[in-house]
UniProtKB/TrEMBL annotation:
<dbReference type="InterPro" id="IPR000594">
    <property type="entry name" value="ThiF_NAD_FAD-bd"/>
</dbReference>
<keyword id="KW-0808">Transferase</keyword>
<feature type="domain" description="THIF-type NAD/FAD binding fold">
    <location>
        <begin position="11"/>
        <end position="250"/>
    </location>
</feature>
<keyword id="KW-0548">Nucleotidyltransferase</keyword>
<dbReference type="InterPro" id="IPR035985">
    <property type="entry name" value="Ubiquitin-activating_enz"/>
</dbReference>
<dbReference type="InterPro" id="IPR045886">
    <property type="entry name" value="ThiF/MoeB/HesA"/>
</dbReference>
<protein>
    <submittedName>
        <fullName>ThiF family adenylyltransferase</fullName>
    </submittedName>
</protein>
<dbReference type="Pfam" id="PF00899">
    <property type="entry name" value="ThiF"/>
</dbReference>
<dbReference type="GO" id="GO:0016779">
    <property type="term" value="F:nucleotidyltransferase activity"/>
</dbReference>
Amino acid sequence: MQPLLPPEQRYARQIRYPAIGPEGQRRLGQARVAIVGVGALGSVTANHLARAGVGTLTLIDRDVVDLSNLQRQMLYDEADALEGKPKAAAAAARLASINRDIRIDARIAHLSSNNAEMLLQEADLIVDGSDNFSVRYLINEVSAKHGIPWIYAGAVGSSGMTMTVLPGQTPCLACLFPEPPAGGSLDTCETAGVLAPIIDTIASIQAMEAIKLLSGNSHALHGALLQIDLWHSEWQSLSVRDARRAGCPVCGQLRFEALDGTREEALAVSLCGRNTIQINPTQPLAYSLERLAARWESLGTVEHNAYLVKLTRDHMPSFVLFADGRALIMGTDDDTLARRMYTDLLGE
Ligand SMILES: [Zn+2]
């Protein structure tokens, strides 16, 4: 498609900023960014980077849009939720309507040790839009192994934090947090809720770091673990300059336990704030989505599109199945029930 405006006009306000200039803009146009999770944080970073003219965006997300997401996930609307569109596909469609001149690659997938390197290793930068530490450890290891910078972020309640990781230069996530926080020890958006403006703030800092890094301005990165609480108006910048650990298993010893799958990966995962259980298959699907849709017709209401099949029954959680065999069981936090439904509908 022909550009509506030549880049020097479309991005004129950005190019006028002296540290960007025409050369910085050209670099942004050639950059490839992978965004892991396009929920709340990822919606904001993807929006900024698409508008800024980053050449290629890969959007990786495992979930579908739900009405309860709209309070904070800025790329989606009621129609996306009512259709139950996968977030990666809904985000890609929205961003394509904002900027036709960039490449957007939607990947409906759960990042795991099986696909993390394949999905991330071509990127120049990885942006964390996830909500859990198992995904962040995978990103951290791909970053260390392939020399790709990444930007960590998390937000819950009214506070959030972010840090930019440059492999070989700054501490990595495992230097600061060698072990994932014990289950139940952390507030999550499920237990503590989350207010949307902190998400925008933290994700906007991520987007600005991305723009600095990709336009050739690494010297301007903030170089800290930033912690912000917008309700209590507290801003803290903890310098991480001396936090790199020579004995760090990931960036020091180059041992990749998450990627090697030596860290246990749960089959059933509860999705934060969603009253939803995800089941990861141990084997690929034996049947096509079409065939399963036909088979389930006698059980309840079946909806079927290019990405998924959804089965809705009275007094039962809804069951959403993706082509890669992954399922979301929506309307329950009971993982035993979720596993049983998976087995009942798909066999062992
Ligand atoms: Zn490290």
